[in-house]
Every structure is written in structure tokens, then in C-alpha cells.
Batch of 4 targets.
Target 1
Amino acid sequence: MKKKIEFGDVLDKVADLLIKLLPDNILKDETVVVRDIYNRILILLKFDKNRKKEKQQLINDIENALKELGPYYRGESSVLCACDLYESDIWFKNQDILTFRRNDVEIKLLERQITGQDWLRPKTELHTIPRLAFYSFKGGVGRSTTVAAIAFLLAQSGKKVLVFDFDLESPGLASMLLPIENQPKYGIVDWLVEDSVDNVENHLLQDMAASSRLATNMDGNIKVIPAMGAKTDGERIDPCYLAKLSRIYADIPKQDGRIERFSDRLERLVIESEKSEKPDVVLIDCRAGLHDLSAGSIVRIADESFLFIVDTPQSWQGYRLLFSHWQQFPKEADIIRRNLKVVHALIPPKGHREKPFLDESYRLFQEILYDTISSGDTSQDEKIFWFDRNIEEAPHFPIGILWDEFLSEFDYHKFDNSDTQQKIKSNYDSLFKTVTKILEK
């Protein structure tokens, strides 16, 4: 019985058809596979009118072969040439074109998705001001508390720290770092709403960052840009927050004809805030899960991303899901994997499974994101991305954070005693040392 084609089979099936029918040079340089938002396949060929006539039989053969895709066949005109398209460069030079590999053959792919494209759009340039993202697949792992603690330790060491609360759908970092009466007038969601209608003025950005008392009497300081601003006229909660939140994720058409992505808008906010506040380091508290906010934070914006993992099957499965998505696109994965570092979160004070956690973390990276090397071959080509299990600088090697009942319930507005500060230093010392090394680079 013939196997029924399902979503996960489609790209391999299309690749096999194209490898069989197209000459290597045309497949490599003049072909783009498009998977539309309804999961159906379109083949674009960079043929002008004259070449289309010459290649008509080839086009017909591809069209007929695509019928094998069953429900993923989009019907007539599943193969289009450049001469059939209005402004063909929009397709053939699209910034979102990926490369997937089949039997050592690279094929260009344009995924037309509603969300999630930023998981595969890494930026390659270094930033003048280091940006560190703190991410978790699941919530409730102490991520925001850690951001606050690291901000405190950095300020204590003399750094000017700028903190963004990018957990827009579950904001909380600002209330941890700022007394409610010190909340700034505007937040990130306000900026995104006003920016969408070109209504951002200088005063809005100036009224978004507030100083945290956490850095009182220190050489450094902590500035916080919250998810939401404090309503004026005596109200402390913005009653329009949900109405604003529901409108911010759309891509925005610009006057010059470009479409600006949501994550690019977020990065523009970071850039403009850096110019205004002039920090030494930026910390980003990410949204948990597989949301576009997370993709924008750890793939598009940050220089280094700390991945918080608790030792549960749900956490490991979640990261396998994300890593496997990256694995399908080696060029993008090679950029992303170099900026990751595992954090072992919520370690029980007694009886924690340090060795099994390291084994599981190593297995996760070795099987999915690390390159494969020959058995017993310890020599490494510079291009090979691989680490031994016990290399502490490796992405998989976990930075431990013990679970502490006092710190988990700690009110950071009342932190001004030496015992509390010592607890913070001891519990976050390993992570702070890693952050310091990153900044020294």
C-alpha cells in the first residue's frame, strides 16, 4: 500500500522530484521552492519568456510530477517562471529564502508562514553594546529573578545596565525591579503601538526607562524598560494594555515600500534605547515558549542567549523540538548554535542530578546541533563545531543555579541587607562569572 503523504514528507518528496528532473545548475541557481501558508507547493524558475519557450517541456514535466504530492499539490500553475511574476525579485531575492539539504544537494526554500519565521533569521554582525537574552521553553524556572540578580551584580561591579522586559504577555520583571510608584509612563507595548502609526516622538522614549533602586549607592546603575507603562491621572494599571497587545505583532508597511518585521521593530527599539541610555550591557528577559517574541529576542537581537532548563522530560522534549527545527537548515543553525549557553535552573539543594543533567544536555547538543566527527578523532578542523562532554566553555555545559526558597519569594525592593546580598552573590556566582567573561570579549 502506497504511503500517504503528510506534512513532514513534502519537502523531501519535492526535492527528489526536482533532483531527478532539473539540471544541477538550474536547481542550484535558478529554482526556489515556495511552501504557502496553506502548505501547498509552488516552484519558481528564473526563466524569461524566451527561455520559458525553450524549457516548456521541462516545466510540464515538473508540473505533472508535483501531482504526486496529493493534498499538497496546489493545482494548475504550480510552476511559474520569472516572466509570469510581477517584480520577480520580490521572490528570487527575498530575505527569507532558506536552504534545505537533500542528499548533499542544496535547494532554496521560501516558507510563507503566519508566524515563526524569525527562528531562522539570525543576524551575523556583532553589536557595539553586548546584548544577553535569558530564555526558557517553560515558564516558572526563575528566569526573571535571575535577570534581576545579574543586573544587580553587574551594577555592583560598576556597569550601566539596561534591562528590557520582552515577556509582553506575562510582564513581571518591572514590578520586581521598580516600585510601582516609579514605573515609567510608557512601556514597550506603548512604543510598538505608536510606532505603527509613526507617532513616536522623542519624549516617549525618554519616558520609557526608569532607574531601579536595586542599584542605589553603586558605581553602576540599572535602567528598566518595562512591557507596559503606568497610566497617568492616578491610575497605575493601563486599562488599554490588552487592546494594545493584540495589535503589535503585525508587520508594518513603510513609506519607502518596505515591510518591517515585528522582530526588526523590536531591534530598532533596542538600538534607539541604547543611543539614549548609553548602557554597558543590555539584558533581555524573554517570553517563554516558541513565540515570535522569543525568536526575535534570542535569534535576531541577542549576542548570547542563556537557555534555562529544568531537569524534567517536558523541558528536554521542548528544546529537542526547537533544536530539530534549526537542524533542518545548517547555515542558519551554524550561526545560532554559537551563541547559546545552557543554564541548569532550579537545582534542588540536596540530591540533585548533576551528572545525569550534563549527560542529557550533552546528548541534546551532540545529536542535533553539534557536527559529527569520526569515532576516536579528537583533532578538530576549525570549521567543525563540536565539543567534548567535559569542556566547561561549551554551549551544552550547564551553569547551575540552586533553588532557594528565600530568593524565590524575595522582594527586591527590600534587598538592602548584607545577608541578602551575600545570598544573591553565592547563588548566581557561576552565571555572573560567565556573563563577565562574555563582556570582557
Note: The chain has a mean pLDDT of 90.
Target 2
Amino acid sequence: MSLVTLGKRGAFLAPLALLLVLSLLGNVAHAQGGFAMSGTFGQQQFQIPQGAEVSGSTIYVVVFNEGDRDLQVRMASEAPFGVEALFSEDEFPLKPGEQMKVYVTVRVGENAVPGEYQLLVRAEAAPEKVEGIAIGTAVAQRAKLTVTGQSALVEARVVSPDGQPVVAEVRLFKLIDGRENEFAFSNTGILEVKVSPGHYVARAYVGGKKLAEEFFDVAAGETKTITLTVKTVYFAHFGIVLNYYTETGELAFVKVVYQISNLYQPMADVGLVLKVSLDGEALEEIPLLSLSELSLGDIGGSWEYTPPQGWEAGTYTFQAELYVGGKLYTTSLEEELEVAAPTAVTAPFNLLLIVSIAAGVLIIGMAILLVVVLRRRRQY
């Protein structure tokens, strides 16, 4: 059980403050009122060089509210100089019975001092009043951290058998005392990361399935290039082509072009969806393709897209998602389009030319008429 007087950002508020006690029992920490934490962070053994960071889908804590009160939770950390813990969620509410999974990234600065440390991450619940004293709870996990002064580079890429880049999950693990510790993660099929020397394994996943892996050693100062070849369904091409009105030069529509390559096996119940967003907010999802079976080989197509409300100023994002059996299998890379604020509408060039010619004819006609009138006056 953990009790502490909390104020703004966890500061002590009263002279009678109670000491914070962090209960770390196995992988689960408990505090008063059913406030608890579990997860994998406390099992990690980080070995990180100066100027690098570690993150991954297997580095996280889970915060629980098993009590009967609403809680406002804030994440914090205790780290040595030059080291910081970054959270996917810094602050969030938890109703009774709810939980939150928080991913942790450990960043080591260039000025961090090499050595062995303990790194603590903590979840603090907002205080409640008990007999005039602000009482709060906190739970934490602690991991081992080694900051090294030596580093190397790892570049991992996922490709098809014919050498084309494949959008896939790439995960890099460091083997320490026979245990795998996730070091880095990418969902683009390309991973470039600064690492500490040692023994590693890189793996490629598509649709949640491991399709390739490679074990390797990397020495201090070395740049290691790893190629993971996979047979799978992937986007061989995805892009956008802009089309403009000839008369005004304004954007008319965007042609979305895609090509899917299946090097894996025939797959049933396949769907392709185009997702469009504006400044990070979802606009719409458009079905592009629906097949009872996707055969081996290539298939492609295009779609002419115009926003329902017309083009607005901002950043449009286009991405295609491939579903198999109703579940997301893979995605394309994102394509972005910057649309500027609309300018004043000008007359088309052809119209301006006609008006100019008409004005010229009118002026010449008036000049001829004036000459005729003047000659008649002289005659009289």
C-alpha cells in the first residue's frame, strides 16, 4: 500500500505528509484503493549508447483502477542525468474497472554518463481529501539500464524476392544473458537505429505473422546492413497524381493509383480500403476493391478522389489498407498533399483574350466613327 501527500505535480502539500511507499511485488505493483500496475517494463535490461533511444511494442506498463472511484493518472519517471522516459500517454482518466496500456520509450542523451543505473517509471493517481489532507497513491516498476559510450548502426530493410521494398513491421531485439530485449520498432519496412555493440536478432512481420528473421553481431563503430526477404502480399506501388482544371489551374481531383503483388499464396475474402484524412482528422473511407479470392500475381487500379465538401486548405493524407478475412493484413505508406488557401478566382485566359479583342474592336470602331463625324462637319 502506498500513501503520499500530493500537490501540483506530486509535490508535498502539508508538513504532515506521508512517505511514498512503492510496492513492487513480482511484475505487479499495488497501491491503496485498487490502484495497480503490471507490464513488461520491469523485466527489461536496457543497454543503450549515448545519443540513442529504445522503444518497441513489448516495452510497456498497464495501469489498473480496481477501486470504486474515478482516478486521474499521471505518468512520471526517475532517471539518471541525461536519460528520460517518454510515454505514449502522459496523463489520462481511469474509471473503476478500466485499464490503460502505456508504451515506454527510453531516450539517452549525448551528455549521459556511461554506467549502470536503475530506471523507474511511476503512475500517480490524483489526490483525494481525507480529513483535510491530500492523499494520493502511486505504483511503479523499475528496470536495469546500462549507458554505454560505444555505439554502432543497424540498418534493416524488408524486401520481396525480386528486391522490391515491402511495408512491414520490423522489430530489433538485443540478446542479453539469453533473453530477448526489444530495442527498436518500425512499421514502414525500414529500420535505422543507433545501438550498443552486441548480439541481435531482426524480424519482419506482416499481418502479425513472422516471415523472416536474422541473427547477427555488431561491433563498436560498425554499420550493419540487414536484408529481410519475405514472400507475402504487399503494395508494390501506391501514389497520387494531381489533376487540375485547364481554365483556372485549380485542383480538380486526385487520382489514387495502386498495385498489389501477391507472392505468398491465394487468399480468400480480400478487401482494399482507401482512408483519407485532413490535418489528422479522418474524412472518409472508400472501398476500392473486394475479391472473393486474391490470386498469385499482380493486381492494380485507380480511383479519382474529390472531397465531399470540396478541397480545403490543409494537409490531406492518403493511405490504403488491405484486409484479409475482415482483418487488417497490411497497409501502404502514407501520401500527403498540401492544399493552399483558395485565391481569388480569375477569369479564364480564353475569356480574357475575347474581352481584350472585343475592347480593341470597340475602340477602333469609335475612332473610325469619330473621323467620319469630323469630316462631315468640315464639309458643312
Note: Residues 152-229 form a domain with the Immunoglobulin-like fold (CATH 2.60.40.1120).
Target 3
Amino acid sequence: MQIAKFVNRDQQEVVGRVMGDSIAVMDIATHGLHSMSDLLAADNFEEIASTLPNIESYALSDVRLLPPIDTQEVWAAGVTYKRSQTARMEESEAAASCYDRVYQSDRPEIFFKATPHRVRGMGQELRIREDAKWNVPEPELALVLSPSLKIVGYTIGNDMSSRDIEGDNPLYLPQAKMYDQCCGLGPWITLASAMPPAGEIEIDLKIRRGAETVFDQATSVSQMARTFSDLVSWLGRDNSFPSGAFLLTGTGIVPDSDFTLAPGDCVDINISGIGTLSNTIVQG
């Protein structure tokens, strides 16, 4: 099952159940729930989600999807794939040893990525910084976590990154990663029980510039050096998430140093069991 946030015909934000080419508004109020995050936090979340009655249905093509986030924080893990380790070491000679050590270390790199107002959903615009010259998307499987840090679902994440800023000095990571419109999430959440086994999850990134596909590469979650449970356990150390959280699990696809995003590019990320998240790139 897949659940989404969207705007109904009365211009209200509602929670819906995706059913092929249609989406039905779920009557979450019957369980005293007010938002998607309330639903995700319920102890018997999947049972509730599967039995909630529908109020009305729409064609997916007729609705405006919203990012599937309410008040949760978005965090991210880095250097979880061999390819990302190599790419980060290529960014900067000074930083190379840092990224090599974190790839080998028990403690992963985990950083704060975005507040909800910096997140964009399906069909919305993501932004590249005005003060950066080397900008890339980072396609990632995102874990959807309840307040107790249980993995209740999965969605697609785009961890936008200004590689020249981070490469200049690793201490500039927050500026390279965190800014307005810096994170894509969506198009919806696939419940954990409906996802394929982790080793069978494929991630595909395509970047279109006009009529031309200027980048096309794929990887698999099987190439990760860390497990989901390991990343979640580190995220939860001495930390609490009253509304739950999203955790981006790192990228195994990094464009070469001669590629940078341009305004007008369309970024399509497809992940097995979820679908495709599409965003257009803007600057300024």
C-alpha cells in the first residue's frame, strides 16, 4: 500500500491511498487522527491504514501531490556506498582521509538535512545555490520513521548537494546541503510490508535537459556498506523525534566532476517498490 498527501477539490490538504492511477481520500478522522504523521505514529499503523474507509476518489493526474511530510525532521547518512566514498575523496585532497575513515568506521556520517519548509514534493522545484558552481542531485532511498524509530515506510529522497562548497572544506557541509528547496521527498510513502527485500531495490537517476537525457545511471541498495537498522540505531543515540523522522540512506550514484546541474533540468529518480520522483531545477 502507498499513502500520499495531496490537495483535494476544496483546496484542503488530505491523506490519500494510492490505487493504480487513482487516489482516494482516507477518512483518518474515524480514528481520531488529524495528519499523515499521526497515522504513521500509530502503534497498529498498517492495520489502521488498510482498514480506513475512503471518502472520495480522484485520478492521480488530476491532483497536486504534496511532499509526504508534516512536522518531521529530515536527516541523512553519507558515504554509505563505495561510489560515494570515492566521489567524496575526489572532491578534495584535504578531505579524502576523512571520508575514507568514515566509510571504514563503525560510526556512520549522519547529518541534519532539512526542516519541512525546505522540502519539495513531486513536480515541485528544487534549487541550486547561487554561490556554488558544482551542483548535483543525490538519489536516495528514504526511511520513514515513527517517533519510536520504527521503519514504517519508504519514500524517494533527493539530497541536493553543492559539491564544490563541501569539497573546499568538510566543515562547509551544512552550507552545501541545507538551504531553501534543498530536499525532494515523494511522490508518496510505500508501507514497509509492501517493499521488495532491500537487496532487490534498484535506484535509477535520469537527468533531462530539454529533449536530451544528459545523465542516466543506476545502482542497487545491495551495494550499501551499512544496514538500515544500523543507521537508524545511530540516529537514535541520545536523540528523540516526537513527530518521527525521515532518514536518507546515502547515494551510490554521483555524476562525474565535469557534470553540474543547470536551471531547467528535470531530475527523475525511480526506486523499486515506490515509483518516480520528478523535480525541475531552478536557481535564485
Note: The chain has two domains: 2-64, 73-283.
Target 4
Amino acid sequence: MLKVDKIKVNYEGIPALHEVTLEVHQGELVAMVGANGAGKSTALKAIVGAVSPVSGNILFNGKDITRQETAKIVRLGVVYVPESRRIFGPLTVEENLLLGAFTADSEEEVRGHLDYVYGLFPRLKERFRQRGETLSGGEQQMLAIGRGLMIRPKLLMLDEPSLGLMPKLVTELFKTISLLKEEGYTILLVEQNVREALEIADRGYILQTGRTIHTGGGKELLESDTVRKAFLGL
């Protein structure tokens, strides 16, 4: 579904990604892990058109989307749920969700998507008239993911979804991500919780200073010396 081929990204002339290559097949959950500053978020932003690679190519379902406008990429079914959630605080929960439904063709379709999100996150339904800024951190993360799901994406990209959450909520979050995969969603996950991410991933990529240094099956990477020494303290 997604093929990123040797993309290079610079920030003000300074390299952030060095010919990063990755693939995501339909129905897979692929995790991208690494230390802060490794380039993980930059890779997602390049895929969705928020930053432009200076070289390399990005293909989605065989279509070259390198350097295309973000709105066009989203309409193809690529959704990016950014780090720090970035919900609209003054708007209600439901208003935030409806902003994610801009590709829907009818009110009936919008209502169906809304019902799906409320079924996945019952707490959002309970708080549908509440302003986004009054929600807890965990509820705001549910809202950010729910807004992305309103498009019914072909590829859902999650950027550090567990950041700042309590351990109990982190566990709930990963259960939800696993459920989305079971329902058929294709997911590209960037995550600081390396163990949790690789435990549910079909495959994973390890980034370091803008380079892919290791790739393999999720459980295979968990057992590798690279991950055990660098991220698990073993």
C-alpha cells in the first residue's frame, strides 16, 4: 500500500532523514521506533505532504504522492494523527469529530462514521457537547484518533499516541490500536513505548539519526540485541 523509497529531508539545509526506505502492506500494523530526534515524525510528515523530500519517492497504492498537497493525499485515504493531539480546544467533541468528515459524500455517511467513533470510544459520546480543551489527556487522544477515523482512512498514521498518558491509559490505547488492526485498518505507528509498539506490530523499523538501522518482524526486533540494549535496558 505504501512504499517510501530512499527519501531525504532537510530542515534549513540540515539533513533530518537520510534515504529512509520503508513499506506498509494492506492490513499491516507497522511500527517505527527510535530515540527522540531520530526522524520518525519527519518521515510521517513527508508521507502526508507536510514537509517535502529533497530526493526519493513516496508511492501510495502505486500512485506517486511525493510533494503533493496534503489535502490531496488525505483524500486518497492517508490520515496523519499528529503528536500532541492538536485538537481544537474551543470546539465541542462532536464539532472536532465533524471536522474530520470533510471527505464524506452525505449526511448519512457522516452519521455512520460518527456512530462508529462513538462505539469505539464511548467516553467521547458521553462528552459530545463538552469543549475539547476540558477533556483529560487520554480523552483528547481518543478525540484526535476519532477525528482521523472519521475519514475511514486506508492508511492511519499515528504519531506518538501514548505521549503524556498514564500507564493505565497507555494499556487501553494499545488495546484500541490492536482492535483497529483486527477490524482491517492499515496502521503506521510511531511510538516511544518500544516494547508495547513492537508487541502488536507485524513489522518494525528502527530509526537512528535519520537512518533506518534495523528492520524485521515485531517480535523479532524485540528479541534483537539492538532493541534490547538501546531501548529496553537489557
Note: The chain is about 40% helix and 25% strand.
